[in-house]
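Data availability excerpt. The first of two example chains:
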Amino acid sequence: MRQVYDMGLGARGDEVYEALMTAHEGLSEEESHALNVRIVLLLANRIGDADVLKDIFETARSYA
């Protein structure tokens, strides 16, 4: 079952999306994938709750 998450970024969601796209500009596909992995690991460390992270991973996977 998919978890429904509130839009925690509020009105700044587009700004964050744009920053993410800018971070990927000029990267090869391999470099872009590596950047995504680093971002996920940094965010996971910031969240710091294994149960929350597992739920997020399951939710993300349900969209695959």
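And the second chain:
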Amino acid sequence: MLLTTEAELDNLLTDEFPVRNRLIYLNHAAASPLPRRCGDAVKSFVDEYVCFGTKNYLDWSDHANQLHTDLARFINASSADDIALLKNTSEGISVVAMGFPWNAGDTVLSSDEEFPSNRIPWQALADRGVQFREVSLRQSGKTPEQGLIDAMDNSTRMLAISAVQYGSGLRLDLKILGTACQARNIAFCVDAIQMLGALPVDVEAANIDFMMADSHKWLLGPEGIALFYCRDKWRERINLFQYGWHMTEKYEDFDIKTWQAASSSRRFENGTPNILGIRAFAASLTLINDIGIDRIEERILHHTEFMHEFIKKSSNLEAIYSDPASMKSGIVTFRHRNCPAPQLFKYLREQKIICAERGGGVRFSPHVYNTDEEINNALITANDFSI
């Protein structure tokens, strides 16, 4: 679908997101409401399953294969073989953390602002002699990227970082970090859950080795299914710790007695695919592609600038993080000068403004379909709140 005018885009978004008739939804950094086409895809598959069972089972693999292909194209991976469909971001990170060929004394470098999903799997490597080291992203006189690069040493085997920090919204320059990792022979693992679907990601340009992201945030999909990217040079070097029928090379031959892991990243998909999730994720991805990721980025960054400008002029609100424009994403976290964040958060929910309590304040994370009017009304409501 080619959307040539803003009016066409607005009409599409009004139809796709009936949630706007009920709520001001500013919580895409947590979980997105499903667009209408995603719900329709789920209903269609459920109706098919209810009426025909597995009659069309042989076609289901085609849907999965197509999603692999579409996701590879979306992130500019060199091949669909680089893509696996896993349950969530945590599983993807764990595949890398538990399977990477570590040596005692190796170090995983990360930041001090990571979500637990990007801390716990690395910390669990301590009994193998692998150290997890957190680096401040806010060092005086240094960009976040330079702080991370300066912390790299001879023991560093992996940089494991979120492309966008969940609490602050800080966006890192993945190309700078990927280039530094490549020059030092350091593997580069990116948790892209707060970027993918909101801002462009190019795994080739950024020299990313591993990347993972659930579909249920900015990708506008359901929970329970995630993209996992593994660069081909690492595919057979990651030791497997999950096994099942679907991860074998000849997975459709149930009678074969000898097996080997698939040569593609399907080797990381150990069991029966989440066909319902695949249908839903695929539908949501068509919406993102219909709009265009560059257009989505433009609108989201406009929202971010709009929020920061409002907060600067407001009487009661202050942004907790005021990073330069190049480091901004779709997340803005702020506090109310006269009331605690939990009370403000509770009040906003009562006013049907859906957001999150994160990073020491209240977090707004609007998407492409939100309007200036909605965001303005939400900020006025927050500013005018009093205990």
